[in-house]
Structures are given as structure tokens and as C-alpha cells.
Amino acid sequence: AKAKGLAEYQFYDEVLHEKTMDMLRLETDLRKGVERGEFVLEYQPIVSLQTCEIAGFETLVRWQHPERGIISPEIFIPIAEKTGSIIKLGDWILYEGCCQMKQWLEKIPANRQLFININVSGKQFIQPDFIAKFKETLSQTGLPGSYLKIEMTESVLMKNVDQLNNILSQIKALGVRIALDDFGTGYSSLSYLHKFPIDVLKIDRSFVVQMGARNEKDLVSIIISIAKNMKMDVVAEGIETAAQFKRLHSYDCQYGQGFLFSKPLRTKEAENLIMGTDIK
Ligand code: C2E
Ligand code: CA
Ligand code: CA
Ligand code: CA
């Protein structure tokens, strides 16, 4: 029994060692990957729940690893944030997303509304030169700020209130709007909503999934009424079923996003969808 115990111990130790090595390898690969441009953006439609038309897109980054294939952002974004690679990567994401949106703007009819949402990590916000780089990206790509929404998570709100407000007001002065991502999953309290100039609440998928599970008014409808009171738009995330869609529609939720409408798409597919050349 003793021998087996030792063998087991060695086995787990090896697994642990493997995992550590794997992480270290990913960290190095990530740094190189950013230099080599191994990343690609996908665009997931954000749909108006009243008209079922595409109102905008959220950009979602993917890593095309030379040996491992596509790696999910759930895996590499936390590593990039930890190692600092997120700064360069985030700069590229912002540039690429704005550039793509600018190209689409030139193709769509002038009366067609469309916006692009880009995720910005808290680590990026607190860089001293974030605003300077942000302005430069808008001017280089030629995208008017009013077409852009920045998605940030509640964790950013935990930072210094004055400092963050200063950054957000400079962003907003460019016509860019602010969306609070994964709303309800972080540790922030509702009082934070008053302290920051937030334009859009994105209700996390976990609340959408729970919807209708109980008879009482669900959290989603409560969040929607809070947002309405505060003159914020609402996007419900992770809509997968027609029942969820119907319920959200009855709550008068403005926007929805989820596999029911579309998965995240590559540039060409997304373009076909807005230009209406795709079977819908
Ligand atoms: P997120 O910002 O909350 O993005 C939404 C995630 O939900 C995406 O996963 C999307 O593919 C997925 N999703 C959309 N509709 C559905 C649905 O109906 N059902 C389910 N089960 N999932 C759905 P993805 O692309 O794997 O991204 C995961 C997370 O990685 C993002 O969560 C975000 O936190 C981070 N991320 C992705 N792209 C970026 C980026 O460009 N910058 C930063 N900083 N983070 C990013
Ligand atoms: Ca997001
Ligand atoms: Ca989200
Ligand atoms: Ca999320």
C-alpha cells in the first residue's frame, strides 16, 4: 500500500509539473504569438429584440496557435493579463476592430445603424498612455467614436473611482459609449452604477439561463427595470432558446446576443450577414 501511495504521489506530482510546464510554454508562446500576429477577431451579432435586425457586433479574439490550433480566449486572456501581453494584444484588437468597422461603414447604406463593441481589459485601462493610444487608434482608422462601444467588466469599477471616472469621461468625450459586461457576476454593488457614466448593461448569460426557473419575477426583469430607470440600454447575453427570446422580448429588453441568433463569425460571414447576401 505504501508503494502504491508513493507511485500515486509521483504520478500527481508529474501531472502538476506537466501543467506548470504547459502554462510556462503558453506564456512564452503568447508573447511570440502577439509579435507574429497569430490572432484573429470574430464578430458576434448583437440583435435588436424588437426588430430582430443586427444592431451591432461584439468582437471576440481567437488565437491560432501554430501547433495547437484555435485556443479559446477563456484560456489565454487571463494569461495575457497576468504576463502583461494583454497590452500589445489589446492594442491590436482595438485597432483591428475599429479598422473593420470603418470598412463596413463604407459599404453599408448611410441610413443603416451599426455599432461595434470591443472588450477592453482592466489592465489596459490603467496604462498611463491608454487615452493617448485610444485617440490615435480612432484617428488612424478613421472610425468616428459614436460607432464604438467599450465593454469593461465590473472588476474595473473596483479601482480608484476618480481615476476611472477621469478615463471614462475622456473616452465618452470622443462619442464612445461604455458597456458594463457580465453584469451581476462581479462583486460590485448597485451603487457603482451611479458613480460611473455607464451607457449599456450586458446581463450575463448565467441570469438568462436561470430565467423562468422560478415563478417569482426573475432577476433579469429586475435588472432591465433598473437599467431603464437609469436610462441605460440592456443587452441580454447567451440567448440560446426561443423561450428565452420570447421572455426577454416581453420584458422589453432592447438587445440580445447568443447562439439562437448567431455564433461569433469570421469577417466575411459577418459581412455577408449585414449586406443581406446570406440566407437568414
Ligand atoms: P464575454 O465578453 O462575456 O463574451 C461572450 C462569450 O460568450 C464569448 O465567448 C461568446 O462566444 C460566448 N457566447 C455567445 N453567445 C453564447 C451562447 O448563446 N451560449 C454560450 N454558451 N456562449 C455564448 P468567447 O469568445 O470564448 O470569449 C470568452 C471571454 O473571453 C469573453 O467573455 C471575454 O471575457 C474574453 N474575451 C474574448 N475576446 C476578448 C477580447 O478581445 N479582449 C478581452 N480583453 N477579452 C476577450
Ligand atoms: Ca464582452
Ligand atoms: Ca459578457
Ligand atoms: Ca464572460
Automatic annotation (TrEMBL):
Domain of life according to the entry: Bacteria
Domain EAL: 23-278
Name the UniProt record assigns to this protein: GGDEF and cyclic nucleotide-binding EAL domains-containing protein
Taxonomic lineage from the root: Bacteria, Pseudomonadati, Thermodesulfobacteriota, Desulfobacteria, Desulfobacterales
